[in-house]
Amino acid sequence: MEKPPKVTQREIARIAGVSQATVSMVLNDREYSNVRIPEATRERVRRAIEQTTYVPDPAARRLAGLDNKILGVFTYEAALSRESLDFYGPLLHGIEQEAERLGCDLLFFTSSPVEDGTRKLFHKQTRLRLTDGCILLGQQMDSAELTRLVEEGFPFVAVGRRDEPGVPYVGIDYVTLTGDIVEQAVALGHRRITYAHYGRSTPAAADRVAGLALAAETMLVETTLLSTADSDLSEVAAVIANGTDTVVITEDVFMAEALAVELAEHGKAIPEDLSLAVLGDVEGHSLGGRGMTGFQLPREQLAAEALALLQQLIVRNDKARAKLELRTMIEGSIVAGATLAQLKESR
Amino acid sequence: MEKPPKVTQREIARIAGVSQATVSMVLNDREYSNVRIPEATRERVRRAIEQTTYVPDPAARRLAGLDNKILGVFTYEAALSRESLDFYGPLLHGIEQEAERLGCDLLFFTSSPVEDGTRKLFHKQTRLRLTDGCILLGQQMDSAELTRLVEEGFPFVAVGRRDEPGVPYVGIDYVTLTGDIVEQAVALGHRRITYAHYGRSTPAAADRVAGLALAAETMLVETTLLSTADSDLSEVAAVIANGTDTVVITEDVFMAEALAVELAEHGKAIPEDLSLAVLGDVEGHSLGGRGMTGFQLPREQLAAEALALLQQLIVRNDKARAKLELRTMIEGSIVAGATLAQLKESR
DNA sequence: CTGAAAGCGCTTACAG
DNA sequence: CTGAAAGCGCTTACAG
């Protein structure tokens, strides 16, 4: 199996009887310093290309300073495992669709070494430079890495709101959504709410807490915050079961499911004894046959918008880039569900 | 936002007070023509690299003829959509895991233009050349493309058996699995089997038919083949309902589910009136609460082995490559299930 | 209008 | 042992 020598522009030039530079110009449909290539020449070049199996070498193009039409996808943990896919699936689908539309390929940084449980974007062999720009996904983004990307002026977009200055992102407006859930609870007669959360320090987690605090102040409800980082879930359940709050809100659907089981052991049924709502996506989940009350998050749209923004960062020049809205929050919606119910009597 | 000039080996060389070539050698831990670089020099270079944000430019490495540690993933249709993920999910997971182990990144050719319903691997802008090698996934592989890859000596591996000469693959042994299903049916007293299939011309489809024919001959059973390409599913159901065959085997689980609905309308219950088995993966699927009889296919393993083989094709020299087993079939297993039952009486 | 040439950042021979 | 140089396949100025 001898490899036939790779066809290059030089070979095309030889066949067409022109210079290699001319081939490059025809291929890129570009003309420099009042150069004009006659249609006849272009045609000769095109025919020569068709005769052969020529494809431009993307490494050479990139080295010469051109776009690659390759976008990087960096996830802070494995994205394609069965469990991750529940979260990453819709995001990846949105990314794939948008990439297809833009004519870009996607480089997944699966090789990134794992340190302290999360992958590192920068390492001795990072292929980041090969891409025109990069999308960052995951809860546990590394602040130092984000800052370095900003400093280097490397085009990238984070999926999810970030606090670091200069970081472009597309995020979900958890503050508003959380307020909407509280509003619903209040409309149903509730006045005392427990929020069970993971005690994480991510921006999204902070936004939920902020949204809750804001709503509590505006609507005069009392809130109790319980973190599973401080005490385990069964303790949290015990506190709720023995307390007087009438609604329990959880950070995500998995905590809701686990907590419902614990609460059942305390004789608390949902929503008869206690209402429940989730500050996360509840699509496809139910609790004892009942649809859950929570969010419907447009994850595919989120990812697609992030990719579209990235593309703009890449193709625009510095001036046009300055006009770009680097930070976008998109709205999710509330899923009414059946786990948040009218308050029956005062306890 | 001025981009700081990219750090190159030249800059490292300047800092360390050595030549750029020396930097390259230290980085790659390589020595040519009885060259030996003293540890002291190596240390100076390493320190210079740590001082800066140097990362090697993968495009330049590739252009200079080195491996990229990038493996291409080509799917003949979108892989990350909700529906595709059912099929591609386990394969992609296996690929991701193995890539992580090998320290490789993955390039998904999402940009490939769609023609006649399937994506084209070769097009004017294919980034194939950027990868060290490529994994091919999908039912509808293009023979011409496979042949071209073989001719060009480009390293690649197909997931699924292929007929084209010289194509390396890792496939599933449908012939044996199909025989096993027939054997089970025979052991349960059945002698007449209908096989409902899509009439596809893929190697996997052909293997199922071949396995069935072989088993039928060996075990003296009569088989009827019905293709949904010739007549639609309700007609197929009618033929089965009015016939005397006691087992219906379908090509995959989706056809099984659809066919069961049609058969119910003819008053045929499964497995009381008719047994059913599937020549495809049945994990996670059931029919009216009953586990389906069919295959359990080790898709993750399949994909991982394909990637491992690809890696071998890439790193081995021509001589060592010749010793490689280019074609592997791996065994799936039978899921007993409850839809294939003992034949009650003769009809 | 076309060709010869520099340069992108590397690897790897080959002189010193 | 080290440095200067060629080459990978492109793009893009700059002479002719």
TrEMBL record, chains A, B:
Source organism superkingdom: Bacteria
Transcription as UniProt keyword: yes
Gene source species: Kribbella koreensis
Gene Ontology MF terms: DNA binding
A Pfam family reported for this protein in Swiss-Prot or TrEMBL: LacI
Keywords for this protein: DNA-binding, Repressor, Transcription, Transcription regulation
Domain HTH lacI-type, first and last residues per copy: 7-65
Annotated protein name in UniProt: LacI family DNA-binding transcriptional regulator
